[in-house]
């Protein structure tokens, strides 16, 4: 997105064999195996580890956190207060921002929300917003909405991928080659989403606009309705949101076993590429951590 | 046959309009009540025929004239509504055919009888229109669609629309929409009654007395429909407006979606429409 120069970004991970690592290196991002080094040369810290790892990371880098640091957690279900609590043993007024984003940040069409912690200033929030707006939509919310956001746009791409797979199957069934079917399905969803975002109209109205009387589309929609399509989607968002809360509960009670933590993790990595510059100086760090010995 | 010439005088102004009903059943009764309520036609200008007095008593109470003679209705009216049962109609048309002149406007309310059939059974010069009303015409909140036959022109269509708008929504449509209208609104009224009943039952289950629940259910439907009609907004938008995040409404809507209510309603409209088509073919 050109918001930040690659050399201003530092990422750390104990496992240097991850494909994400070489990807980052190729972009010119500074790489280290030391989380502490990352903290030292950064102003904005993205904690991009799995939720159960967060407490361990905070323990590790806590002593190096200074007043200037903005700690941004993207970990699902990890509350601002839990992070602030952990960090407060090291730093009296840690600046914490919690955000929830999604994978399409990779193609700069992410959906991100953030909530600011007790000591994070308005400018800190705005800085994060500026950064994340470069990779998609970004807005501030109250923290208690973040679980719902997880259910909707956090998990949302998975629902879309599932839908696209199935749409492609439909196309193939009716005679299209798979590649073309996938391409057309994806473009249809992309186009529809774009129309909705750019329109003042309600999606129901936009749907009506496509349905000529007695035509193909309305016949198809009837099938969707018969299958309870809408309720399935509502169920999905609800389930994801509820599960997020459950995980948060478990995390709060620190019930996750070290064994679970040692499992291989799929890391969520935020990628920002060089060229333009942003208002205030910021070096951005990405933590990735596979396993932690106690 | 009787040469009618120019009697009664052909006049398009409502007070001078002589209106006849062949058949005096529920639907005809609904229309006439609407006409009278709106003051479009004086009761004394209305003549209705039916084989027995069973239905006609109510018409007389309204101030209308009645007869057992269909021909008399045709002789004494300019605008003639055909409101018999479908299987009766062919016989009635044969009966009145000699008396039908070029000044007449014949409007059929008979379900499933096409304009083609009507024109076949009436003199070739007859101005024929076909209308499909629904029951709430009785309370001037009906939904009616009509189509015109070959000889019916803009004037006749305008007259019909102006008269019947007193009973509710009245729109001209291609004849192919009439069966759809049956499925949507003719029968549709029954779907709404069913929904109202279910709403009330839900309330009763939760502890509200039945009579109160029923009245509130009806008012809810009325109010929602009124908002739809008056704001002209898309129903999806109005629905969204009622749904506060995490509130009661969205929880309830989720239940409705789980029950695939939308698809079921679509199924209902489709079934009624198809049945109307099938019946018309008989």
Automatic annotation (TrEMBL), chain A:
> Coiled-coil intervals in this record?
none
Which EC numbers characterise this protein's activity in its record?
Answer: 1.5.1.2
Q: Which Pfam families match?
A: F420_oxidored, P5CR_dimer
Q: Which UniProt keywords apply?
A: Acetylation, Amino-acid biosynthesis, Mitochondrion, NADP, Oxidoreductase, Phosphoprotein, Proline biosynthesis
Positions contributing to NADPH binding:
35
Keyword check for Iron: no
Locate the Pyrroline-5-carboxylate reductase dimerisation domain: which residues? 143-247
The molecular function terms of the Gene Ontology recorded here are:
pyrroline-5-carboxylate reductase activity
What enzyme category does the UniProt record give? oxidoreductase
Which catalytic reaction applies to this protein?
L-proline + NADP(+) = (S)-1-pyrroline-5-carboxylate + NADPH + 2 H(+); L-proline + NAD(+) = (S)-1-pyrroline-5-carboxylate + NADH + 2 H(+)
Return the GO cellular component terms, semicolon-separated.
Answer: mitochondrion
Location in the cell: Mitochondrion
The GO annotation for biological process reads:
cellular response to oxidative stress; L-proline biosynthetic process
Q: Which residues bind NADP(+)?
A: 13, 48-51, 74-76
The biological pathway it contributes to is: Amino-acid biosynthesis; L-proline biosynthesis; L-proline from L-glutamate 5-semialdehyde: step 1/1
UniProt domain Pyrroline-5-carboxylate reductase catalytic N-terminal: residue ranges:
7-77
Q: What family does the entry list?
A: Belongs to the pyrroline-5-carboxylate reductase family.
Q: What is this protein called?
A: Pyrroline-5-carboxylate reductase
Lineage runs: Eukaryota, Metazoa, Chordata, Craniata, Vertebrata
From TrEMBL, chain B:
* Entry binding sites for NADP(+): 83-86
Q: Which InterPro entries match?
A: 6-PGluconate_DH-like_C_sf (IPR008927), NAD(P)-bd_dom_sf (IPR036291), P5C_Rdtase_cat_N (IPR028939), P5CR-like_CS (IPR053790), P5CR_dimer (IPR029036), Pyrroline-COOH_reductase (IPR000304)
Tell me where in this chain the Pyrroline-5-carboxylate reductase catalytic N-terminal domain is found. 19-112
Pyrroline-5-carboxylate reductase dimerisation domain location: 175-277
GO process terms (BP): L-proline biosynthetic process
Q: A GO molecular function for this record?
A: pyrroline-5-carboxylate reductase activity
UniProt-listed Enzyme Commission number(s): 1.5.1.2
A GO CC annotation given for this chain: cytoplasm
Residues annotated as binding NADPH are 70
Entry keyword Chaperone:
no
Protein localization: Cytoplasm
Kind of enzyme, top EC level? Answer: oxidoreductase
The UniProt keywords, alphabetically, are:
Amino-acid biosynthesis, Cytoplasm, NADP, Oxidoreductase, Proline biosynthesis
Instruction: Please name the pathway.
Output: Amino-acid biosynthesis; L-proline biosynthesis; L-proline from L-glutamate 5-semialdehyde: step 1/1
Which reactions fall under this protein's catalytic activity?
A: L-proline + NADP(+) = (S)-1-pyrroline-5-carboxylate + NADPH + 2 H(+); L-proline + NAD(+) = (S)-1-pyrroline-5-carboxylate + NADH + 2 H(+)
Gene3D superfamilies in alphabetical order: NAD(P)-binding Rossmann-like Domain, ProC C-terminal domain-like
Domain of life where this protein originates: Eukaryota
Pfam families, alphabetized: F420_oxidored (PF03807), P5CR_dimer (PF14748)
User: How the protein assembles, per its UniProt entry?
Assistant: Homodecamer; composed of 5 homodimers.
Q: What does this protein do?
A: Oxidoreductase that catalyzes the last step in proline biosynthesis, which corresponds to the reduction of pyrroline-5-carboxylate (P5C) to L-proline using NAD(P)H. Proline is synthesized from either glutamate or ornithine; both are converted to P5C, and then to proline via pyrroline-5-carboxylate reductases (PYCRs). PYCR3 is exclusively linked to the biosynthesis of proline from ornithine.
Homology family: Belongs to the pyrroline-5-carboxylate reductase family.
How is this protein named in the record? Answer: Pyrroline-5-carboxylate reductase
**Which species is listed as the source?**
Oriolus oriolus (Eurasian golden oriole)
Lineage of source species: Eukaryota, Metazoa, Chordata, Craniata, Vertebrata
């Amino acid at each position: 997105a050109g918001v930040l120069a690659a050399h201003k970004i530092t990422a750390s991970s104990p496992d240097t064999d991850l494909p994400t690592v070489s990807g980052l290196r190729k972009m010119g991002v500074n790489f280290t195996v030391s989380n502490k080094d990352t903290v030292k040369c950064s102003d904005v810290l993205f904690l991009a580890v799995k939720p159960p790892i967060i407490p361990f990371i905070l323990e590790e880098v806590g002593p190096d956190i200074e007043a200037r640091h903005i700690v941004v957690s993207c970990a699902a279900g990890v509350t601002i207060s839990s992070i602030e609590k952990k960090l407060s043993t090291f730093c009296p007024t840690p600046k914490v921002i919690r955000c929830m984003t999604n994978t399409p940040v990779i193609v700069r069409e992410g959906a991100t929300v953030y909530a600011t912690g007790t000591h994070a200033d308005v400018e800190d929030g705005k800085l994060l917003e500026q950064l994340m707006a470069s990779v998609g939509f970004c807005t501030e919310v109250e923290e208690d909405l973040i679980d719902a956001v997880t259910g909707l746009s956090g998990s949302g791409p998975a629902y879309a991928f599932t839908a696209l797979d199935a749409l492609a199957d439909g196309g193939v069934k009716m005679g299209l080659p798979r590649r073309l079917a996938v391409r057309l399905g994806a473009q249809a969803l992309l186009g529809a989403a774009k129309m909705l975002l750019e329109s003042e109209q309600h999606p129901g109205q936009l749907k009506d606009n496509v349905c000529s009387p007695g035509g193909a589309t309305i016949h198809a929609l009837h099938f969707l309705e018969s299958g309870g399509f809408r309720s399935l989607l509502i169920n999905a968002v609800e389930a994801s949101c509820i599960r997020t809360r459950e995980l948060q509960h478990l995390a709060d009670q620190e019930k996750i076993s070290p064994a679970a933590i040692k499992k291989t993790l799929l890391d969520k990595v935020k990628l920002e590429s060089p060229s333009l510059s942003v208002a205030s100086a910021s070096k951005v760090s990405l933590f990735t951590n596979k396993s932690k010995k106690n | 046959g009787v040469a009618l010439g120019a009697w009664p005088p052909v006049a398009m102004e409502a007070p001078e309009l002589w209106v006849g009903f062949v058949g005096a059943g529920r639907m005809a009764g609904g229309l006439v009540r609407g006409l009278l309520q709106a003051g479009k036609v004086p009761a004394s200008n209305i003549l209705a025929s039916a084989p027995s007095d069973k239905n006609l008593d109510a018409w007389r109470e309204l101030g209308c004239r009645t007869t057992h003679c269909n021909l008399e209705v045709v002789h004494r009216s300019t605008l003639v509504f055909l409101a018999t049962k479908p299987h009766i109609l062919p016989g009635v048309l044969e009966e009145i055919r000699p008396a039908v002149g070029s000044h007449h406007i014949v409007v059929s309310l008979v379900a499933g009888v096409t304009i083609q059939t009507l024109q076949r059974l009436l003199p070739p010069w007859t101005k024929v229109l076909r209308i499909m009303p629904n029951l709430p015409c009785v309370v001037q909140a009906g939904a009616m669609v009509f189509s015109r036959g070959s000889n019916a022109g803009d004037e006749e269509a305008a007259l019909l629309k102006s008269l019947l708008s007193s009973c509710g929504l009245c729109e001209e449509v291609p004849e192919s929409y009439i069966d759809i209208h049956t499925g949507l609104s003719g029968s549709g009224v029954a779907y709404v009654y069913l929904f109202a009943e279910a709403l009330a039952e839900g309330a009763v289950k939760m502890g509200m007395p039945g009579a109160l629940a029923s009245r509130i259910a009806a008012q809810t439907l009325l109010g929602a429909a009124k908002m739809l009609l008056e704001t002209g907004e898309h129903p999806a938008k109005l629905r969204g407006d009622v749904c506060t995040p995490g509130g009661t409404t969205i929880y309830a809507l989720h239940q409705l979606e789980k029950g695939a209510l939308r698809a079921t309603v679509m199924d209902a409209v489709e079934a009624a429409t198809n049945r109307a088509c099938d019946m018309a073919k008989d």
